[in-house]
Amino acid sequence: MQIYWTKINKIIEETPEVKTYLLDCPEDFTWEEGSHTHFALEGFNAGDKPNRSLIRHMSISTLPHENSIGITTRIREQCSEFKTILRNLEVGNEVAIFKTHSNVPLKREDKNVYLLSSGVGLATFRPLVLDYFERDDNVNQIHSLNIDSSKDFLFTDIFESAPDKKFVSQFVDNRKDYYEEVKNLAADKDGLFYVVGSDEFLVQNIEVLREQGIKPEQIMLDKHEQELPEFLSFDLSI
């Protein structure tokens, strides 16, 4: 396993609670849209075993041509040891990235694509939308729906409806409106539904989509293949 040590080159305050850390790209480091990586802080591999409290599974919120690896995360006032250390890091500090992989690349199957996310989960979808804007081959249209109760919506410069690009972006701040809209979107029985958020959020969305007749193979989750059955193979009659 290759561990890439790299430096923070910029810290962007997206909202009062959300920061994006832009990292230098190591020479042979590559990734694609929808990728996640293991993001680790100094000292994580100092002992005999990796210190898991200094490692987090994070989405990469940028594309390679942006020349920085973007890690976008919410840091609340009361937070974990990992987030506390992260909050105090500065430009020039070193961090590590390893085990990078994409579970949710943009499928180009001449279908409508629906991106369902909660809060900072939108960071996973930012590269998919940018990739679509640059090359819309074999994607009919994209509709993004994000719920964020903080009302500090993310990436509003990119997640802005653009009819000429066949892109719709919706933000809601409550569950009732969100799930009503998911039901409306699920009227498209041939669409592809990407879902990113907490495990509880995934389960709730899958239940709503399955009740509306959406099949498991139409639902894309940012999970390893072996984890998918745990979320997608439940009996609707239960």
From TrEMBL:
PROSITE patterns: FAD_FR. This is Dihydropteridine reductase. Residues 1-107 form the FAD-binding FR-type domain.
